[in-house]
Write a structure and sequence with these properties.
Helix content is 32%, strand content 26%. It has helices at residues 3-15, 33-36, 56-66; strands at 19-24, 40-47, 75-83. It has a three-stranded mixed beta sheet. Helix 3 links the parallel strand 2 and strand 3. The longest helix is centred in the N-terminal third of the chain and has 13 residues, at 3-15.
Length: 88
């Protein structure tokens, strides 16, 4: 399974999102120190009922906890937009 598919699978399992859009922006960061180490740059939009009533920092924590084993090795940067269904 490739890296983006693994990220999607982990997020789906942990957060059961109704929307999950993941863009690999690694090519935009070629030459960056994180890119040199092999870690990818990703932009994520995720909508989950698990975010309902949570502040932004807690939503991000749930996302980071879901992909924890990939952080700093396979994922160098992750830009997150995390919304509850009521915010659409």
């Amino acid at each position: 399974m490739n890296r983006p598919d693994r990220i999607r699978a982990l997020l789906t399992e942990a957060l059961a999102p109704s929307v999950l859009e993941l863009a690999d922006e690694s090519a935009l960061h070629a030459g960056h120190a994180g890119a040199a180490s092999g870690g990818g740059h990703y932009r994520l939009k995720i909508v989950s009922a698990r975010f309902e009533g949570l502040k932004l920092v807690m939503r991000h924590r749930l996302v980071y906890d879901s992909v924890h084993d990939m952080m700093h090795t396979e994922i160098h940067a992750l830009a997150i937009t995390a919304l509850a269904p009521s915010e659409l």
